[in-house]
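User
New here, explain this?
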Amino acid sequence: MLTRFMQKLSPPKLQHWYLYGLATFFISTLLLSFSLVIYSSDGSQATKQRIYEDSLWNSLQFQLQSYRFLNYLVQLDKNDLPLNGAAYAQYDLLMSRVDLLRNGEVGYLIRGLTGGRTVRLLNIITGELELISLNLSKIEEGDLSYLNDMTTRLKRLDNQVNEFTVLVSQGTNKYIARQRRALGDNLERVRILMVCFLASLFLLCFCIVKGLSVFRKNQKKNQQLVQEVQDIHDEKAKILALVVQETRPQIQALLGQPSSSAGKSNGSSPTFSTNVKESANELLHTINMFSDLVLMDAQKLNLVTTTESLQKNLDDYVHIFAHKLQPKGLKLVSYIDPALPSMINLDFKRIKEILLELLQNAISHTSKGSISIHVRPSSLAPPQNSNGGNRFAMLQIAIKDTGFGLENSLQKHLRSSPLTQNDQHSILQSDIGLGLSLCYQLVHLMGGDIHFSSEPNTGTEFWVDIPYETDQEHTEERETFVCSLQKRALIFTKDMHLAQFLRMQLGDLNIEAGYYSEGPHHEEEEIDLVIITEPDLISPETEASILQWQKNGALVLYDHLLELDAEHCPYLASAQSITFPLTQSQLNIRIRHFFQRS
């Protein structure tokens, strides 16, 4: 709940992106304005250079070259003969200027910048110059009589050349003036845009300053609200702690009262007294759950680790559910992998809460069959930190049932990674229930992980990976009896899940277990142990084999809840009953007493 309030009170992420957007707009506006100024300046300069260099300059060069050609012809005399192409060279220089004015970009600019008069003048000048080239060949041959005619023609062209140059210059100047006016208009628009941009930036800066001021005020207010919420959680934790403190002694008094005396004093049956104790246990467990949830909500739940026996604690946990298994006829078995150390450092109180809730969930979703608890080493990597000489490792607790599976809606909520939700506490409690909510949060608090698998009408399995410490100073050998010679066992059951765990339990005792299957192939076997959970599998022939095995020193164990008649089941005379939950310790004691005595 505290996390949810903090998420709601904290400033929205959109506000941060808004500030980033304003900063980006500010920078882009400055870059755009600077680019517009540079672009306008470069465009104006490029336009002027192109006009002068490509049109006006070429027209002036043409005028100058025509004067040079005329001056060359005027000064020509007989002493200059033979010419050897000198006259053609001067003429080619003049015509190259004409070609530049008529063709390419220069000709395009002249036709576009000036009127039709300029084009006509250029055509007239070109025609006269081409006629002059006819007389030029005579002069090259040494006949100077054509010089007067050529100079006269060139002098007559002088007016046209001057007029052409003036028209080109006027057209160019007009174009430059138009370009300057257009550039001035553009620059004026740019200045207006710059003023608008600066005004916008000023407005945005004002909004940013105002927003930052409001943000600081909201931040202070949020901090005050968060502190108030934390104070509320602390007060709630204190109140619940007071309730637990006041109610726990009365509940523990009920639990500590002997069943016989309670029945006599109240005038009720022992069954009623047992039910009262069971209800008191469940009430105490519920109070503890609420207490842990409130403490986790206030972030004040501390883990208290102790070094204890894993086997002893697990045996105590599973026997709490003995009264809930009998009405449904469920069979609960537990198995601890021998690879795990017997003494570990762990918060056993939280492990108990996790196990009890997962077992309660398994019993609720199982109408018949069996439930197993398998404690084994985990494949996950342990934490890297260390404490003194202790070593960290991971264990896995798997709880599996043969029930009808979890509801689809519940599976959907469990698979939605509830611990990553912003309002995780409310989602967990409302959608998956108080018990599973507590499990998920406790596992997360202990630095572990929890997963599940469920199939309709097949069963459900939860597995929890929890880190633990191995205490080097409290290492004890596991007290497990092992048969000196390997024994053979036969299990009469249809529940393969139950048979698998019975086989693992017996395997630690050096007993090879097999499953009963119909047929005469078991009659010739030498069996040292018979476990019966479903007597309807026993045929008259099989019953005779069991009696023969008993005669040879075999041990027969059967479920004490089975309604068997010694008259119809003669093997019961020397058989022993077993009770579920069936733990390794319980089975070990029974096997040890029998085979050591025999």
Q: What stands out?
A: The chain has three domains: 13-214, 306-474, 487-597.
